[in-house]
Design goal:
The chain is α+β, with helices and mostly antiparallel strands. Helices cover 21% and strands 28% of the residues.
Length: 213
């Protein structure tokens, strides 16, 4: 994914052919025939697929890094390369990461902690770091231990900030005061002075008022 919309299937084929034998390249297009920015590359052997996955965001077509993830031919068997369940306590959110820090550097740091599973640095489409990442552990206990030890670690002169990655609780719906659908209308006082009020006057009231003016 993250393929430039002007990229062709031949360009994708040329990029991945250095890995091994390709049996098929499919660039996904919309009904008008324009690229949707992602596609599929089918290799001859599983070993070549494994090599391709190692090139995730290391290959570039034009100026864009290519995101590479495994996919099964069976849609029901398809899983994301990096997937974090909602409400998990086993994942750390790492913020305030210096823009020069790479995903591989984060892996080298956090793989030293017990229970480390995977790291993912968030990036923009051009491959530049967005300054935060997710680190997954096997248990919430190991995630908590890593948080206590790694929080405040200085990388490239900047201290990182770690938190247990849990989505914020949904706030209660905001109570709103219903708006009146009636427009303010003229009301007549005994002294023939006028003022605004929200109680609606009848047509007869208006006729009586204007006859007395």
């Amino acid at each position: 994914s993250n393929v430039d919309f002007n990229t062709t299937e031949d360009q994708i084929n040329d990029t991945f052919s250095s890995i091994g034998s390709i049996s098929k390249v499919t660039l996904v297009r919309n009904r008008q025939g324009f690229s949707k920015g992602y596609g599929y590359v089918q290799f001859v052997s599983p070993e070549e697929v494994a090599k391709a996955l190692e090139k995730d965001r290391k290959f570039k077509i034009g100026t864009r890094p290519i995101y590479i993830s495994p996919i099964s031919a069976d849609k029901e068997q398809r899983v994301k390369k990096f997937h974090i369940e909602k409400n998990t306590d086993c994942c750390l959110y790492v913020a305030k990461i210096h823009h020069k820090i790479s995903e591989q550097e984060l892996i080298e740091i956090f793989k030293l902690y017990p229970g480390y599973k995977e790291a993912r640095l968030a990036t923009y489409r051009n491959g530049n770091s967005r300054g935060f990442a997710y680190i997954e552990f096997d248990t919430k206990e190991n995630a908590a231990k890593a948080l206590l030890k790694a929080d405040g670690t200085v990388l490239c002169g900047q201290a990182i900030s770690l938190h247990i990655s849990k989505p914020p609780k949904k706030s209660n719906p905001i109570e709103t005061i219903p708006k009146t659908t009636r427009r303010p209308v003229l009301s007549v006082s005994s002294s023939n002075e006028t003022k605004l009020r929200t109680q609606k006057l009848s047509n007869d009231d208006f006729r009586k008022y204007f006859k007395n003016i």
